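Lecture 7 notes: from sequence to structure.

We start with a single chain of 837 residues. Read the sequence below before looking at the structure.
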Amino acid sequence: MSFLRARLIAVAMSAVSIASSLPPALLPQPAAAQATETIVVEGNRRVEAETVRSYFRASPGTRLDQSAIDDGLKALIATGLFQDVKINQSGGRITVSVVENAVIGRIAFEGNKKIKDEQLSAEIQSKARGTFSRAMVQSDTLRIAEIYRRSGRYDVHVTPEIIEQPSNRVDLIFTIEEGVKTGVKSVEFIGNNAYSAARLRDVIKTHEGNLLSFLGNNDIYDPDRIEADRDLIRRFYLKNGFADAQVVAALTEYDPEKKGFNVTFKIEEGQQYRVGSVDFRSSIANFDASSMRSYSRLGVGSLYNVESVEKSTEEMQIEASRRGYAFAVVRPSGDRNFEAHTVSVVFNIDEGPRTYIERINLRGNTRTRDYVIRREFDISEGDAYNRALVDRAERRLKNLDYFKSVKIVTEPGSSSDRVILIVDMEEKSTGDFSISGGYSTSDGALAEVSVSERNLLGKGLYAKASVSYGQYSRGVSLSFVEPYLLDYRLALGFDTYWKQQKSNSYTSYGVTTLGFSPRLGFALREDLSLQLRYSLYQQSITLASAYNNCNNNASNSSLAFNPTPAYIKNVLGGVDPTNASDSSVYGYGCYGDGESSLPVRKELANGATWTSALGYTLNYNTLDNTKNPTDGLLIDFRQDFAGVGGDVTYLKTALDTKYYTPLVSEIVNVIHLQGGILSKIGNNDLRMLDHFQMGPNLVRGFASNGIGPRDITYYNYGASGDALGGTKYWGASMELQMPFWFLPKEVGLKGAVYADAGSLWGYQGPTSWSATGEVNTKACPTCGLQYDDSSTVRSSVGVGLIWASPFGPLRFDYAVPLTKGKYDTVQEFRFGGGTSF
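Now the structure, written as tokens:
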């Protein structure tokens, strides 16, 4: 027995030793620590009991304590499935009593007229056949009110109504009182000394309400737009030398009496600086910093312009990359001299971090093809990261006008020297259908229907078809442009057109043109572009029979163009022309056997003429705004050489320059210079149709084709023949444009005063014609063309009214000629305009 007892003691001690070496988790647990609770679920109708119990599971081997029960209760309520949850503990039993939320049968909106049901349904969280939650309904109510406030209706009232239905279902009705539009009643500025409030209102997007506000939405109060306006004001000051300018606040206050908002921008202008010096420094070995001087847009003594600094920085950084310094970074710095009011600018060129582009991810382009977006980048995956090139790509994408917004951001890549470019876009409609109409004193009434697409098939192609029909002109045209030919930044396009210009009070003849013109354009840099083109077109004269015979009557009011008297008595041998019975008097001499001028009739007899010409246009553009410029230079130089086949040969050169500069009190000075020359090549005569025709496009105050050489064959008999055109012209104009300060800016009215001068001369077309039967020597002994070709300077002064109306741009001009040629045609009042609707 003693042996057996000793043996049992040894086994027990061995078991204790083994147990002490095991992990606690493998040790058997005492009976008191077992999770013995029973979970009972009550009140559930749609939700399974096991689903409810799953929120109260204890970890394996642990007891369901009070903390776990509280966590399960919170998680169960957070599901939104239950209106109420209660927990009762009794001994080893846990009872979970739930009251389920109802199910939404339908959701309806009542009283909404300005915003459609579909838009509201997409914005709220409550959904039909979803779970009803009062907290969610309250959130949806606030969301609907916010949508209306974003559209300018701050008086909106939204009331949710819950209609109970059988089987624990409810209908949710949102009753909306939209109220009137809550607009901006006033926009004021505090602290602006250098610029008037009227000038600053031109800078921002938010406008005060006026009679024409119903045509737009810029008078609607939008907090996001107000914030963007703060940046626009600041950028405006930085552009004009105020390097310390800040818009410290944008205060908005609702006026219950006016039922609108008063917006006040508080500005700290600071001093206006000029550029004291411009220097270049480089920390990169073998890199000559001074070689970047030609890429600087800053001039010593000029106003300090932050935009010029940014553009200079971008061009320098891109040029450094082209030279092989892919990681070069240009950092501008400025040292202010507060006494002299100057800024010394230094462009520091340093070696940046060696970072590469891992990927370029595109988001939001559901229609536009990926390659259309990627080709706007000068960098791709694997290239060195260059912020200047990324900014340029973002600007190019915005200029495509395919997207409402474009934003390029970076994210960390797979390693510290890798970045991922994220391109976020929001697409917009790129197709246009327009019906436009207008009237001008030269062309009469005109209507046009056009269909265009800027992003055809999502491939970035441009196409347009238009049909026009007017009082004196009509036509059909088709245009197409491929902006990236063979994946190069070359724009290939073509135009096919048919135009008919009818005779009117200024010309006795009509011209029909059928043509085709392909073109190839590319940018030499961002402000300089070149376009090459080829033109092939056929022109033919149309002339009413009444203008091409000797049986006309000047009293015939049906003739739109009747410059000659009823008949001209031609006298032979000195016989008295007043003696009607004299047999030597021949009536109906007319215009050398016709009402129209000799070049017109000769062109008519020759039939249709083909012109085949090569040409190019060099365009330099630094305008701040293409639609309403106030600053910048626009130069357009054109040359066309005709004679690459066809029936016509010539070299035509034209230069057109416009310079805009802002003056005091929002007055903009516009200087317009133009000139051209038509050169004869070979032995072929120049046609009258190829000559320059000038009128108010050169000097205002004159009629269309009212300036320059003119047929005066029978001027002594009261005739005023066709305008013949000239081979040389020049023009100069100075115009001051200014707003009407007593009118709201949103009206879009501006006044103008101007002075014009110019001349057209050098007719080189046909002057005689020996066609059989053309000349009746008895009726017209001197039928050779007689014309005036003086280079008299024409000049005028006038006033104009410019209206950027909701119906399209309109302009009214009244000009008084100061000097003119003896045979010029005057037209003091001129009006032109059009619209799209």
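DSSP finds eleven helices and 33 strands in the chain. Keep this in mind for problem set 3.
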